[in-house]
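A favour between colleagues. Tell me how you read the following sequence-structure pair.

===
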Amino acid sequence: VKIVAASSVWLASKLEESPRKARQVIIVFHRMECRREGLPIEHLDLFSKKFSELKMEMSRTERHILKEMGFVCHVEHPHKFISNYLATLETLELRQEAWNLANDSLRTTLCVRFKSEVVACGVVYAAARRFQIPLPENPPWWKAFDAEKSGIDEVCRVLAHLYSLPKAKYIPVCK
């Protein structure tokens, strides 16, 4: 679990705008493990056998993750659509709430299940419902943004379920 987490963070950093070196990810995860285990935080020697093995294992796990994903790892975020949609709907007061919902949607599988346009419409709709701001229904506003009502409803359902869950807690992983 720990090496998959480290490899996932390493891969994610490459896909976003802040690539990190394997060395940086390994050092951070090593420090986190020392803290979790209640051990003194020791310096990980970059020329040690342990570091070399961790780096090789992380690289191997990254390749396995990519293979499982079919090397398809580009995800378009809904954030870039939100401001345009709100400006078109003339409801800019929903911007911060919709943005927050879009951030929280990244904790779910929505970004791989639906097109970004649908997720953006879903978070705009959820924000409008929260603040009780009506959106145009005739014609349906979501049609202009290439979304279906069923997809928007599913985005809202998933977000509602996310907010119903208890706060996340750390669960120790066996060695």
